[in-house]
Write a structure and sequence with these properties.
mainly alpha, 7 helices, globular
Length: 131
């Protein structure tokens, strides 16, 4: 194992950020390409949504109609990796210190790294009911 004592705190933080990014990318690929994904449980997906997503999202608000916009694999992909995760950082002054968007990216990154196949299927099944 190499010694990292000659790296700066910023370099170590950058390495940690890359490791988390790579883990999330791998998890996204695993969950979207799984051929044997378990069937989703709507009630369990609703409970998961309330617990993990409900502080920022509302089923009758910003998530209303998501099932009409996306279906099946698309819905799962958007749920796992929403557009906010792929948006480039803005250098516009009014958006430079948008802590809300940065917090949303971090929260979605953490969720993506840690979703189980069952949780992803349950949440997708629940979101499919939001027409």
């Amino acid at each position: 194992m190499p010694q990292f004592s000659d790296l700066s705190d910023q370099q170590i933080a950058d390495l940690a950020r890359w490791i988390h990014y790579a883990r999330a990318q791998g998890r996204f690929k695993e969950l979207t390409e799984a051929k044997d994904a378990p069937p989703g449980n709507i009630a369990a997906g609703n409970a998961y949504f309330v617990e993990k997503c409900g502080s920022c999202h509302s089923a009758s608000g910003d998530m209303a109609g998501i099932a009409s916009k996306y279906s099946g694999p698309q819905l799962k992909a958007v749920m796992l990796k929403p557009n906010v995760m792929d948006e480039p950082s803005s250098w516009k002054l009014e958006q430079l210190h948008d802590v809300r968007k940065a917090a949303a990216r971090q929260q979605h990154q953490r969720l993506l790294e840690n979703y189980s196949a069952v949780e992803a299927s349950n949440l997708t099944a629940y979101l499919a009911t939001l027409k």
